[in-house]
Each structure stands twice: as structure tokens, then as C-alpha cells.
Amino acid sequence: MTIDLKTVKHISKLSRISIDDNKAKKLGKDLNSIFSFIEKLNELDTKNTEPLTSIAETTLKLRKDEIKSENIREDILKNSPDKNKDFFVVPKVVE
Amino acid sequence: MSNITDLKLVELVDKIKKKELSSTEVTIAFIERSKKSKKLNAYISENYESAIKKAKIFDQKPDFKKKLPGIPIAVKDLFCTKNIKTTAGSKILENFIPTYESTVTQNILDEGGIIIGKLNCDEFAMGSSNETSYFGNVQNPVSENLVPGGSSGGSSSALAAKLTPATIGTDTGGSIRQPASFTGTVGLKPTYGSCSRYGIVAFASSLDQAGPMTHDVKDCSLMFEIMSTYDTKDSTSVDFKRENYFTNLNENIKGKKIGIPKEYRVDGMPKEIDELWEKGIKIIKENGGQIIEISLPNTNYALPTYYIVAPAEASSNLARYDGVKYGFRSKGENLIDMYEKTRSEGFGDEVKRRIMIGTYVLSSGYYDAYYLKAQKVRRLIKNDFDEAYKKVDAILTPSTPSSAFKIGEKLNDPVSMYLNDIFTVPINLAGLPAISIPAGHDKKGYPLGLQVIGKAFDEQSILNIAFALEKNISFKNNITDWWIK
Amino acid sequence: MSKNNGEYLIIRNDNKYEVIIGLEVHAQVLSESKLFSTSSTKFGSEPNTQVSLVDAAFPGMLPVINEHCIKQAVKTGIGLKAKINKRSIFDRKNYFYADLPQGYQISQYKNPIVGEGSVILDMPNGEKNIGIERLHLEQDAGKSIHDIDPQNTLVDLNRSGVALMEIVSKPDLRSLDEVNAYIKKLRSIMRYLGTCDGNMQEGSLRADVNVSVRKKGDKKLGTRCEIKNVNSIKFMQMAIDFEANRQVDLIEEGGSIDQETRLFDTKKNETRSMRSKEDAHDYRYFPDPDLLPLELNDNFIDQIKKDIPELPDEKKKRFIEKFKLSPYEANILVSDIEISKYFEEVSKNSDVKLATNWITGELFALLNEKNIEITESPISSKNLSKLINLIKDGTISGKIAKSVFEIMRDGDKDPITIVDEKGLKQQSDPKELENLINKVIAENPKNVEAYKSGKDKLFGFFVGQVMKNSNGKANPKLVNEILKKKLN
Fold first, then answer.
1. Are residues C349 and C442 in the same domain?
2. Cβ of C1 under 8 Å from any chain B Cβ?
3. Which residue, of C403, C422, C441, is where some domain finishes?
4. What is the value of pTM for the model shown?
């Protein structure tokens, strides 16, 4: 199977990474070589194999319902690129 | 004083405890050497002034019960450190200063460790040569223009060059063991769930593990004992009985059954690696261990599996770098435009490549063929190890299929770069512990490593086996200080 | 739209269309802290003051699940008579948005915590069963604010990470009345269980509405459209009505329906397409590797079962059987947990029939007038039961009771005190009443004549005169008895 330019562009859109045509072509080439190497998995019959969702040898631990976090607004907003003391600020959303 | 940096971690701890050295002397010695070693490009951020201050404070009121009494340590820049810039080797986090501390670095601080800087690494730990870092290539102190391995390349370089007495890295597919092998140092990837992932910039959540990188196995056991704690802030942290790995360390491997997987004899592997492996086998036999041929039949499928699972998780883990809350932001006309430009300019090529792979394998119509398939094969790979461990206590393999390569050599061939991790990746997929120790040199004089793989949570056994191997191998890292002159 | 025999049909050119509705209700779980972090869920705080490093998705931050939220979901599942799945999985739903800091929402996709269940609706023409497809836990997003800053969008993450239960119904709803009844019933069940406060103004209960239409008699379902995030029953009904008519018009014009997500514009009262095709979403669900599968054991579930209170359906049955209430009365009294509590407190110490009448009559009128909830009632259940007892034991008449009630509503005064102070006690002494009656008879000889000669209707006149002369305090029952004896 091959990944065409249109697919590369679609993936870049889903990934929210803009990409020009030249880069897309180069990336398409890389992806094709990586996927031809990944195709090796098709040799294996996994019809009766359960997928492994977690490797950790433990069960999900449950936390008590307690409020432990305080108001750390200053810390939360400190690193934000567009400074505002109350909010995160982003360019206008257009739907 | 000039030989402080030649001392190993345990020796330094000992000398500080005996008051033969002060924390300030030790800290300054490593900082001075680091300053002279800029050519290696091992550091991304230096924390020298603050470290010296902390060393002085330690010396005023030393607590010798601590396991790392006033010991300076540089750490991989993937660990979030409070008030110290943390970049993950990426432009997108270029100016990010965490207000919190990762659990692993907190454990080091709690035991008296002092952080002297943050070490270079592949961007978001995606790479095997440290060449994907936004902050530039790192030199392997073994030889000029040689890669130090990756992704913990700054860590392996700084350690081998004695800029830090020990360090910590993270290992998702070999990122501790491969650079350790490339630089003639020791690196341990613990069992998944042994060291907390809290505060470590995530690459692939189901594979990432933090671990120590040290000059020898003894240092490694001490560091691991400090790093490994149960942490309620990480849902995948496992609450098992942790040993006193350092005190329990011994070279007695009598009666231990060591497996040799036939699938690890790959075509085109340098003769020296085979010889090294044979040498390891001989040592084990001579020390009363038993060698058993085993089979891990799905080994060949590990790498393709890894290159589905890891990018898939990464594509999602890296979605948070969107220019909204922290880090780099590019100007955009609207929100979506801002996202696309920020992520396009903020991420490097390899990271973007993996995000794309991950997005693709999870996308509608391909999930079953790729991601689900990979999860099933991952089960088969784990089953291989489960079967093997019915017969053996540990497994011995080479760490890498080759020694360190030249900077730029594999940059344009991602698949050949990925093949570097062929011996290390299966262990991450199975969540097992493995240690790489230096075992010899190839004909170019570059170090080569052997890997000992253990049962889950049985780090003590592989530390002990590695300890026995180390004693008998007596590896010498012939590093000249070429970068200082 | 036409309503024939309670049916909701859309008629165009003699074609009758049936409307098929399914709801995905998002109910905020009642909990102190968020689903995966320890910050507070309190409503209405200053922006970004209830945001932890986990909620804002800082590098290296990890989710740790809140046990209480799991219990609440299981509890709700039991309340919906649903299957509790002992193994469920948390998945990541990947998409980019300003108020989604992780770039994904942790939700449950293929393996939800609760499976199929059902809800019974009381409709005018009988009970109707609505199937529940599933219930799963997920994180809420933050809030994007578009109208403060003209150039930018502002983001408040206080809600980010708050636990939601998404309750998905089967496409079993057929009318706007059923939608109304379904939402109210769900809300009622969750309020009984204490798993969601059901406060729609604060956004604790929102819904995505799936609408499709088909010609009456067709078996195959039409293509559906999903209307996102509607936050009141009224808007849901308006949105469904608009959307169903839009779809019918389209079909009648020979067009076809695109399966799509639409938005309800409350100002224009219309739905419109939300996303261009180019931007079609592909959520790339996969199991969250930061979490493990959630495993529940029998003991955990049994403990929760023990805590399940009597729910509206059971309570209704009991009220009908034990108190001999009509289904209609019982429905009203069990519809809200607080009403049922009030009723049970009142009826515990007083006559059930009177309690029912007084609560559904006078008290509801009062609450309506003041636009308040029963929990804020100016008259306590204790005093209302006292008032009822005063009627029951003949101390005051029903009519007097109403004027006592009028006094009680301003300050929850004890009715016994009111009756004493105002001297409103009913005259029940037969001697005194006889005197009163004798006086009336003596003063109205003509009417007595007329009555005796067959004008039965005049009996009421005598009663009225006696009551008037007693300032309304005469016991009407006794007055009747004595009068009858005297006049016959």
C-alpha cells in the first residue's frame, strides 16, 4: 500500500501541522518506507489474540474524592504565550 | 583535586560521608569540567550558580544519612524540574519553566542530590543519535563526530565525559541502554511501573520508563534504589516490595539460569558483537550460571510493532503542545491557523514524522489494521518472554546490533536509524527490566554493550548478573579528553 | 405539526412523517473534586482558579481517577436498571480545541462502565419504556469566551476535567412530550440517587439530540442529524421541531439528509450545520495508556446497591398501595425527591388524603407564586402536618384552615398558636351550636315554612346563616346534623 500526497495532507490537517507541498512529498516518501517495513506484521495471524492494552502489572487505583489543589492561577498562566492575569488568550475562533 | 571527577558515584558518596571531600568541592569540580566541555554540547540548561549555593548550604549542615549527600547530578532535559527550564529538546518548549518537580528528580533531591543542569536529548526523546534535538548534536566523548546514542545522548555523553558522576535518562525503546552501550557506560531500564512517570515529558506512555545511567553497576544499583518509588500520582506506578538494591548487590550467580535467544543472532551483525556475547556466556558458565538456549519467536515483529504503538501514543501525548498554555506560539490569523503554524514551526522533522505516523495508524479505517494489530502482536511478544521465563531467570543479549556511528550517517534513512533499537525495543514492549553494561570494543575502538533482561520487578537479579559480568570483563573506557584541548 | 391521539406527526402533501429522537444526556457527576484531578468542581468561581496542573495539561502530568465518580456512575446505572460492566476502559478522544488543554478528552468508547438499561415514562395514554443504550464517564472541557475581547477568544479551564456521565438513549422517543418526560425522569432518578443535581441553568444537564424522520409505517430509520449541546428542555423541543420539519421539507423536495452535526441557534430558533466537510472529525479513539482498565468486583457493586434509595417508580407504587393515592397524585408527589420527602414528612404525622390535597393544592400554588423550590418552602412540613391535624380533629374547618395557611406563609408560624391567638377554634359544642341554630330558625320563620313545604334548597341558606353568625367558626358537620334534626 502507498500513502499518496492527499493522504499526507489529510494527516497533517488532523495533526494540526501545516505542511507545504515539498515537505509533503518528502514526508510521503518517508512514510511509505516506514509503512512498508511495518507491513511485516501482516505475516502474523492474530485472529485469536487479545490486544494488550496495558503492560503495567497492576489494577487501576482509585483516588479519594478530596480537593487537594488550591488556586494556582498565577502558576497556571505564568508560561502562557499571550499574557493575561485571568485567562488563557487565543486568536479568535472561527467556526 | 583534579581527580574528583574521576571518582565514581559510590566513591564520592563515601568520601563526602568521611568528610574527605565537601559537597562544594565536588560540585565545583564537576561544574568546572562541564564548563570546559561545551564542545560536547551535552547541556541544554546549566544550573551552576544555584547548585553551588545548594552545595554550600549542604556543607553548612550536612546530613550524611542521605544516600546522595550533596552530590551534583545533571539530568536529562525530559524531567520537569521546578524553576529550571525544561525543554525536552524541543523548540516548542524552549522557554518553559515548570512550577513543579518530577517524582524521580524529587527523589534525588530528597536524598541530598543537587541538580547542576539539564542534559541534551533527542526532541521529545524521539531518536537514537541525539540528532533530532533542537539544541544541536551531542558529541560522543569516545571519538569526535561520533553520536552518543539517543535519545538520552546528552546524558551518556556527560556521564562518559565525567561532567556528572551519574545521571538519569528515560527509555522508551532503548533510549538509556543504547547510548550507554555507545559510550561505554551502564544503563538500566527498569520494569514498567517501577519508576514514576509523573513530571516526565511523555513520549509513549505505555513504554516510557526512567532509569539510571552510571559508570558501573554498583553506582547503578544505588541510583535505582533512590529513583524507584511507588507514586499515587501515576496510575501505572506499581506498589511492589522494593529491595535495598545497593546493599543486596552481590556477584553470586551460582545456579542462575540464563537464556540465550537464538533470534538475536541477526544477519550482518559485526563479528565483535558475536564474540562479546560468547565472552559473556563463558563468564556466566565459569561463575556457576547455567546457559539455556531459548526462543523468542516474535522478536522480528517487535520493531514494526513499536513503530505503531509509540507514534500512536506520541501523536496524542504531543497534542497538548498547541501554543495555548505554555511554550512556543506562532502568530496565526485564527485559532486553527495558530495551531498549524505553531506545531509546524515548533516541532522538528522527526517529531512531525512520528506524529503523522501515529495520527495515521489511529485514523478511521486504519485503526484495526495497524494499531489494534500492533497491540495484538505486542501480546504475542510479551507471551514469548512469559514462556521463556518459565525456563530461565534472565536473558543475555547484545545491547545493540552495532557500535556508535558518525554524526549524519543515518540521518536520511529513518528505517536504518530505527533498526538500532532492534535488541532493546522488545523489552519495552514487554515492560521488562534490562541493563546494558560495557563489555568490550569493536575494531574501531568504540564501546559495545551486553544486555541482561530480567523478569518483571526482578531488577536485583539482573543487577547481580551484570555485577558478576562487570567484574570479569574489567572494561576500560579509553577516553582521551580530546574536546578539552 | 399535528397531534392526533397524542401522536407527534409532521404532515406534508398528505404524507405523514414520524419523528425519531434519541438523546445523549451529559450529566455532571456530583463530586467534590474532578474526575482525574484534585481540583474543586464548585460552580461560579473566578476564572482559572480551580485548575490544577493536570487540568491544564502541563507536560508530564498524569490522570488519577476519582473513586467517588465511579461509584456515582455505577449508582446511576443501577437506577437506570442497567447492566454494570465489571471491566471498562478509558479512551482518548483526540481533537484540538482551545478549551481542551490535553488535545484529547478522556472518555469511554467501546467499553463503557454501564450498558443497557431502561427508563419508564408516565405518558397520558399509559407507561412507555425508553431504552438506555449505555452510560459512560468522561471529562468536561473548559469554556471558550468569545464576547469579552473583540480580537481574541479567552479560555477558562475551571470546568476542564469535571466528571460527566453521558447517558445515551435508544432512538425510542417519538414526541416533544416524551422528550420532556424523559429528561424530567432522568433528572428525577439522578436527584433521588444524589448523583447529579440536575441544575440546567448551571449546565449540570445538557444534551445532544439525534433526530431523524421517516414516513409513518416505514420500518427503516432515516438518516439522523445530531444537534449539539442543547441546555434546556424548551430549546431541545424547539430544536427538534425545527430540525424534523427541515428534514421533512428536504425529503418532500426530493432531497436527502446528510448525516451531520448541527448547532441550535437559540436566537434565530433554527439549527445549522456546524462543520465544513473539509474539517470532518476523526477522533482517533484509543485506550488511554496513562490509565489501566477499570475492574470492579462484585463486592464493590453490592456495596453500592445497598446504598440505593427507594426510586420514583417504586415510591409511586408504594404510595398507591399504602396510601391509596391515585396514580396521578402519586406521580406528582414522587416526581421530585424533595417533594416526596416533604410529603412523607407531612403524612407521617397527619392524614394522607388531606396532606396530598394541601401539598398539591395550596402549597404548590404558593411555591409557584413565589417561584421557589419546595426546599425553600416558607411553611415547614412540621407546621403543615399540624395544620392538617387541626382540620382532621375538628379544631378548625377547612375554610378557616385556609386563612390560617395565609398567616403561616409569612414566617412559618405554628398553626396551633395562630388558632389560639386569633380565637379561630371551631365551635363544636352542640349546646352552643344549638343556640346559634335556634336563633337563626327564630329569625327566619318564612324560610322555615318554605323549607318544610318542600324547598330543600333552602337548607344551604340556614347553614350559611349559622356559619355567618359564628364568624365561620361553627363546625359545619355538626351544624348540618343539628339543623337536619331541628328542621325535620
1. no
2. no
3. C422
4. 0.92
